[in-house]
Structures are given as structure tokens and as C-alpha cells.
Amino acid sequence: MLIVTLFVASFAIYAAMYLAPGNPIAALTGGRTPTPQAIQVLEERYHLNDPFLVRYVRWLGNALTGDLGVSIPLRSDVSTLIRQRIGTTVQLVAFASLIIVVVGIGLGVLGGLRRGIVDNVVIVLSTLSAAVPSFVASIILLSVFAVNLGWFPVLGGGDGFVDQVRHLTLPAFALAFSSIALVARITRASVREEMGREHVQTAISRGIPYRLIVRRHVMRNAAIPITTIVGITVASLFAASAVVERAFTLNGIGAYLIQAALSKDIAVVQGISLVIVAVFVVVNAIVDFLYATLDPRVSLGTSAS
Amino acid sequence: MSLVELPTTAVPPARRRLAGRGLPLLRGTGLVGHLCAIVLLGALLVAVFGAAIAPHDPDLTNLSFAFVGRFQDHYLGFDSQGRDLLSRLLAGARTSILGPLVVVLLSMLFGTVLAIATAWKGGRFDTIVSAALDVLFAFPAIVLAIIASVVIEPGLKAASLALSVAYTPYIARVLRSAALRERSRDYIAALEVQGLRAWVICVRHLGRNMLPIIVAQGTILFGYAMVDLAAISFLGLGVQPPQADWGVMVATGQSGVLQGYPMESLCAGLCIVVVVIAVNLLGERLSDRSTLVTR
Question: What is the pLDDT of residue B226?
Fold first, then answer.
């Protein structure tokens, strides 16, 4: 299923871009009128005259070996262009995921275990942060912490590990902001649900230490929906990071995708879209796999550990 | 976008009684639900009449007023181009609110039709459509919108269309299970025995009984659509400047943010946040209610 999805998705991406208006010859010659011979040479070099299916199969075959074609405006390898930038995106997504897991699950568990004020604060916070889109969060964080307080650099990526972390802190929080709410909410609901179960209530009444109950009986069962939501969220961050990268002018693949879309650099849009879709599908598949290992009931083949 | 069905929490008996039956749109959503509905109604009115009630021309630039604060009847001051900020916010409400509304209507239409059709027909048709929707799942809404901006052209039309398509599988999946539940009810079988045509049953009975959950899902979706559409406009691939739009204004205000004049970005951002909070709270309550009604 995974392979089929990726295959169909790649076809859809290629076909859509094939239909996109624009003339690659004009892009190559930069507006000058080329001689017929020049056109012929270019058409042959970029295989512009081959039938659609032939071009698609060639593109896909090359993509599988890591070659995503050539960016016509930049006359440069798409794979190289992506490789130069994907590090920033991966770091940003990893940093944001860490924040989402720590803060989101932390808040959710807190709200789930403690009724009353703590719980209400968690609910209000998550309602608020769920409604703040990443680009608005970017602007607010930029305005407060970078421009007014000057604690963090305004734009760019930075060099060296410490400097990079400093540069990525605000973008990572902006990216994580609304997802924290989602994770906190699911965590809270599932912790609350597990706390109300009979076996947990029995354990409490028998005087088993609270910490042990929470760790063994509540968290263990609540981990299943939490893993699912964290997985879905992390998978979607790769696409969402485009917005934050652009707001903070980070040099990642998301910002590059936008730039390529604005300048109609077809090969780059195809390449990055394929990468993002592939990451999304693969991460979702990993989540399904984790789901099965966490919950032995899901597949009978897995032994209960 | 990640649209997830929240685990339904147990509902106290008092609210169960409150939920009642029938259509009255807001019954059982409580005070918060009604307040949110008022906010949304206000937003909708501004979206329709905003450009007309704007005190100044939203597109009139006057560079000597750039970043000037509150001044005479310019209550929010001016943006980087010296345009009246309040007027731009009012005028920008149109695309910012009606755009997502179109997205919601389209994807609810696609999603509902697919959900009811697959639940009704079942079999191979169901398998094929579900497989196609699974592939569509692999495309994050933003990526689809970016592709659409290249294939069609950057603008509200391409972005709205792309988002409608991107949300369809989520809606279809949620509604399909609701439709399946409804399909197995006795009254449907009774109607079938009476010899009613399938589409009449689907539209007049099945669809009608699913209305609460359709409305709830649509409301929740509106929040996502608004955020995503504004994000696409922020990226420069949706509504095109100089047209006023909240997403565009957050982007054009960014230069002001870096110079210490964050008013434009923050006001536009705040408008988005307020509407999204109202719609999320209302959507949650409507969906709590709909799980009661359809159960």
C-alpha cells in the first residue's frame, strides 16, 4: 500500500507539473529568440520532445536513484539543491517535535491528572494556542523576542551548533505552537479516560503507589493515542515548516519550495513535493508500525512485551 | 493540516437532555457556543459589508503617513504604505472569511457525496474510492496549494480549489463512518422496502439525519481552512497584494515588525486568531452535540 501510494502520488505530481503553463525553451534562453538548431539541441538535452509517459518513467527511475533532474533556471542539480537545504528543515522539524512532545504531553498529563485550576489553565492555554497559526506565531515571537527584547537573532540560520540552536529557537516554537495544543488535548483526554477505568480505580483503592499506577497503568495505555497524534503532527511539520522558514528567512527546503513555485521552477517544485509527500507517507507508516508494537491487540503476530 | 477526531468524552446526563432533538441551530451548545456564534455572525457581516463601512479608502497610499500611529479618525493608524489600517482590516475580511467559507462548502459537498455514495454502494466502488482518497491523504494541504499555484496561477481561486480537494478525504472518512452507522438503521431498511429510490432516501432521510454531524465537521473545518488559506496568502501564493487580506497583511507588515512597527501584522493576525478561536469553540460544542444526536 505504501509503495502504491507513493507511486500514484509521484505520478500525480509529475502529471500536474506537466500540465503547468510555461515554455522551458523560453526559460532556458532567457527571452532571446533562439535559432532552430539551438532549440533542437536544447530539446534533445532536456528530452522535451519525448512522450509524456516516457518522460515520467525516466524521471521516476532517476528519482529512485536520487537524481531529481535539473533546475532549468539555475542549471543545477535539483538533488544537490535539496541536499544543501534539507538539513535546516530537518533540524527545525526535530527541534519543533521535541518541543511538541515535551510541552504538549507535559501539559496534557498535568491537565489529565489534576482536576480544577490546573486543568482549566491547560484547557484555556490549548484553546488559545490552537488558534494561533504558525505564521502569526512567527510574527509575534519575532516582534517580542527578537526585535524588542533582542534575546534572539532576527533572521537567518547561523553557524556552529550553539548559534544554530539560537537561530532555530524562535522558528521551532512558532512551528510547534498550534500542534502543542492538539497533542496536549489528546493527551489530556486519554489520560483522563484511562484514570477512570476500573482497573486503575481498583489499583488506587488497593493502595498501589500513585506514581506506579500512573506510569504502568495509565501512561502505558494512554501512549497509544498519544503516539498516533504525535506521529501525524510530526509528519505534517515538514510541509508546515515552509511557512515558518519563509517568515524567518531560513534556507530550508520549504522556503525553497515556495521560492521555486513563485519563479515557476518546475523541476524543483516536483522534486521537493515528492520529498515532502514521501516523508509524510513514510512517517505515517512508521506510526502505524509503532501503534502495533505499543498495542499488541492490533496485530496478533506481535508478542506482548 | 491534521484533522483528528477527538476522543468523545463522557457527557453528564444534564447536557444529554439539553441536547434534545431537531434542528434549532445552536441548542445545547451553551453560553460559550452562543457567544462564539455572535462573534462569527459579526465577522460574517464585516466580510460582506466591510468594504462598504470602511471609513477610508483601503487602497489609498500616502507614503508620508507610513507607520504613523493613531491619528484623527484613523483609529489604528497607517501601514507601511500609509494606508488606513482599520479600513484595510475591514476590507480584508472579505477574502479572509468568504474564501474559507467557499473551501468548506466545496469540501463538505465533495466529502458528503463521496461518503454517502461509498457507504450506500459499498463493494468495489467503496474500495476504489477509499483507495483514491488514501492517496490524496498523502498530500499535505499546503503542498497541494503550492502545486496548484504553479499549475493554475497564484491566486485565491487556485488556493481555494486546492484546499477543498485536500480536505475532502478527511471529511469523507469521518462522514463515511457516520453514514455507515445510519445506513444500518431499521428505518432505512423500511424505506427501501417501501420502494423509495436510493437517491431520495440518501438525500431526504440519510443526509438529513446526518446534518448535525455535517454542520459540526464543517464548522471545525472552517478553522483549518481559514488558517491554511491565510498561510498560503502569507506565502504570496494566495490572494495577491495590494489587495487587502489578513494573510497578506501579516506578510506585508513583516517589514514593519523588523523596524519596530508591528501594528499591521499583529492586527491582521489578531483578527485571524479571534475568528479561529470562536469557530473552534463552536465547532467543538456542535460536534459534542452531534455525537449525541446521531448515537
Answer: 94
Q: Domain count of chain B?
A: 1
**Which of A100, A136, A264 should we substitute to test contact with B (largest number of B Cβ atoms within 10 Å)?**
A136
* Average pLDDT over chain A, rounded to an integer: 83
Test A135 with B234 for CB contact under 8 angstroms: yes
Average pLDDT over residues B226-246: 91
Q: Which CATH fold would you assign to the domain A79-294?
A: MetI-like fold (1.10.3720)
**pLDDT tens figures, A33-69:** 777 777 777 777 777 777 788 888 888 888 888 777 7
- Domain ranges within chain A, ordered by starting residue: 2-76, 79-294
Q: What CATH number should be reported for the domain holding residue B38?
A: 1.10.3720.10
Write down the pTM of the prediction: 0.85
Is the Cβ pair A182, B4 closer than 8 Å? yes
CA distance A110 to A97: 19
CA gap B87, A156 in Å, rounded: 34
CB pairs under 8 A between A and B: 157
A132: left (phi over 0), alpha (psi -120 to 50) or beta: beta
Q: Let me know if residue B272 belongs to a domain.
A: yes
Are A147 and B9 within 8 A, CB to CB? Answer: no
ipTM score: 0.83
- Residues contacting residue A133 through CB under 8 Å, at least 6 positions apart: A178, A243, B227, B230, B231, B269, B272, B273, B276
* CB-CB under 8 Å, A147 with B258: yes
What pLDDT digit, counting tens, does each position of A161-198 carry?
A: 777 778 888 999 999 988 999 999 999 999 888 888 88
Which of B279, B267, B294 is CA-nearest to residue B100?
B279
The partner residue sitting opposite B2, judged by closest CB among A9, A154, A236, is A236
Mutate to test the interface with A, among B135, B266, B275 (most CBs of A within 10 A): B135
Residue B81 placed within a domain: no
Q: How far apart are CA A226 and CA A102, in angstroms?
A: 12
Which residue range(s) make up the domain with B157?
A: 3-56+94-293
